[in-house]
Every structure is written in structure tokens, then in C-alpha cells.
Amino acid sequence: MMTAALPDTMRAMVLQRPGEPLRLAHRPLPRPGPGQLLLKVEACGVCRTDLHLVDGELPDPRLPIVPGHEIVGRVVAQGTAVTGFAAGQRVGVPWLGWTCGRCRFCTGGRENLCDAARFTGYQIDGGYADYTVADARFCFPLADGAALEQAPLLCAGLIGYRALRLAGAARRVGIYGFGAAAHIVAQVLRHQQRPFYAFTRPGDSGSQDFARHLGAAWVGDAGQLPPERLDAALIFAPAGALVPAALRHVDKGGCVVCAGIHMSDIPAFPYADLWGERMIRSVANLTRQDGIDFLDLAPRVPVRTAVTAFRLEDANLALDALRRGDVQGAAVLEMS
């Protein structure tokens, strides 16, 4: 079912080849197929994963592709076999955009590991556009509110929350790389009355001040020793050298969680740094249950995202700012 008075074309920022800037294009308005929603995009977060895509660090993207997987939009049309959504309803679209639903991972509660999974803004056109189509099964209902502030919850929030879940009941938690995901998970930790310790690039006084503002128990450079041993470390920066550094700061039985989809190689380190039942693990994508649980928790914290808004046409400027580390919190594209 299509809503009346929709345009024939839309703006989209398109990646033609990795290593090149995104190009503004005018494309035909997509049509929702069976089980799909057509959304008018209100805002789309600019994630570090988008940067890895544009810089050619992620393998085998579908090209050309419209990036963006932190999408907030309104339902304007539905394909057949869609239930539970209404015209005008606000929804969020995350990174995980489709799974087979039949494999051992999908049927075992680990759909994030589905070998056939497809991802928004990577194999499925994403939210750097006026409109997008999404599988209704992977859309989350959202309350009305500030779309700009909701957008980072759809990846930075969800991945940070999953990383924290995988760290278990850790009391003292180190956060390496204080960007979009970190500033959200820091608020969850503060809500749960668990102290967090923020590690930043040397000399990054802006991020350090931001972490203190959010209640960090300690702030320092990534190479510095925290005042006490950590029970877990969450690594959001894509730097493999942080893994052995974090291991040295984690107490026996502690966990180092690598939360990015891409990371530079991890250098060799002594077995003694791992011994004592320490553990290294990665976060792969998210499940819909992660989304349900986190989006229920976020307003109760309440999570307040810090955002810097960019126009759709300025997506390359937003990516450049993220690459330089000039964004405190999250960058978000706002559709006019």
C-alpha cells in the first residue's frame, strides 16, 4: 500500500567505489516489496562502520550502495504481509537488516551470527537518503521525540549495550575510545552505579573532559595505568594495540570485549598477560532482542545522546569530522 502524494525521486548519498567520496544522486523512489516498509528518513547517524565502508576496510560491499544504518523514519508505505505498523509511525532501522531465520544460529537465539545475514548500508541501501526500504521484521517501533537524538541509539547504543552484556556483571569497567558508543554505554553504567574508567588518545582533552562530564571515575591516555584493576574493558576504538594494553589493566577473571566490526591487527603479547582466566571476545552485530531490551532501558536511564547535525549533502564532511576525531558524541545527518 502506497501513501498518496509521494515524490517520484529522492536524494541519496551513494558510494560508487571504496576510497572515493560519496556522490549526491537523485534516484527513483523505492517501492516496498512483501514484508517491507517504505520509510521517510528523518535522521540517520554517521557511524564508524560507515567510515570503514567508505575507506575500503570492509570486504565485499554491494556497490553502488547508500550507507547508513542508524535510521529514524516514518512509515509512508507498506508491502504485502506486513502487520503491526501504521502509516506515520516512527521506527528505527539498525545494522542487522535481514537473516534467513532457518539456520542453527537463527533458531538458536544467535541470529547476529547468521551466515546469510544482510546488513543495512552494506548489502541493503541505508539511510543516507530521503527514503529507504527496510524489512519490517527488523524495524523497531520508536516513541515520538527528537529524531536526531534517537538515531545513535540504533547502532552506537545497541552495540555498546551488547558489549556491556558480554562483559557480564563486571563492576569496574574500562572504556577505550570515547566516541558515540562510549558516551551512551557510560550513561548506562552510571545508571547501574558501576564506575567506569575512560581511556582516550594521548592529548585528547575534549574527549577526556566529555568523559568526566558523564561521570567517569578516572580519565587518562590509553597507555596510562588506571588507579585500580578493571573487571572488564570495552574497546570501541579500531586499534588492535589496545587489546594487550587492556589485558594488562584487567584483573584475573576479567574480560576484554572488542566491540568494533573492524580492527587493526592485534600485536603479539605474553601469555602471562592472558593467564588468570582472563578472556578476549568480540561483538558481532546485534540481535533483535538486544534492540528490544536496550530501547526499553534507554528512556529509563534516561540516555541523552550528544549529537552534531549535518545536512544530507554534507555527509562527506561528517565522515571527515569523524575520521579526524572532531565529533564529541555522535554525528547525525538531518533530512530537510
- Radius of gyration of CA atoms, rounded to a whole number: 20 Å
Distance between the termini: 25 Å
* CATH fold assignment of the largest domain: Quinone Oxidoreductase, Chain A, domain 1
Helix content: 10-25%
Q: Assign the structural class, choosing from mainly alpha, mainly beta, alpha/beta, alpha+beta, or little secondary structure.
A: alpha/beta
Number of alpha- plus pi-helical segments: 10
CATH superfamily of the largest domain, by name, is Medium-chain alcohol dehydrogenases, catalytic domain
> Per the principal axes of the C-alpha atoms, what is the gross shape?
globular
CATH class of the largest domain: Alpha Beta
CATH-defined architecture of the largest domain: Alpha-Beta Complex
Low-confidence stretches: none
- Estimate the strand proportion: 25-35%
What is the N-to-C succession of helices and strands? EEEHEEEHEEEHHEHEHEEHEHEHEHE
Strand count: 17
Largest beta-sheet details? 7 strands, mixed
Arithmetic mean pLDDT: 96
Return the domain count: 2
